[in-house]
Amino acid sequence: EKEAGAVPRVGVCVFLVKGKAVLLGRRLSSIGHSTFALPGGHLEFGESFEECGSRELKEETGLDIAQVELLTVTNNLFLEEPKPSHYVTVFMRAVLKDPQQVPQNLEPHKCDGWDWYDWDNLPKPLFWPLEKMVQDGFDPFPIG
Ligand code: 8DG
Ligand code: MG
Ligand code: MG
Q1: Average pLDDT score over residue span 33-37
Q2: DSSP state of 130
Q3: pTM for the whole thing?
Q4: With the C-alpha atoms ordered 118, 119, 121, 122, is the resulting torsion angle positive or negative?
């Protein structure tokens, strides 16, 4: 299925890891509504992946992140959505700059709230691109 004039967009999202937990929030955006997803958003013109991940984290959660590293990229088709979309999604990993800093829900129209979830006890339902990674055995944690 082709949409006239539609193009793939680049999403950048972040596995913000703390011990064995990651930060997730329930989406209120139309794509993936009410599913748990990583913080992240659209790559802006001229940005690096690291800059985009840091900016989106700040905008969405108020958190300052460090050690922002590229993990993997997936190709995600949302062709059945009211507005069919195609995202090349870049997954980064990062840690908190200040381990004491607490997430704030700065975009309450887009997210129900942020919380830490143990990787072995993730909430359901996950946003499907993330669910697929989990099913495939993807592990966002650093070795050791
Ligand atoms: P922006 O205006 O702040 O740039 O955009 P946003 O409203 O924050 O965008 P988003 O939907 O949160 O993220 C952009 C796209 O990235 C999203 O529509 C689809 C793709 N994406 C995935 N997996 C994930 C994920 O786990 N979290 C987020 N936030 N986006 C994801 O494929
Ligand atoms: Mg955003
Ligand atoms: Mg977002």
Answers
A1: 98
A2: H
A3: 0.97
A4: positive
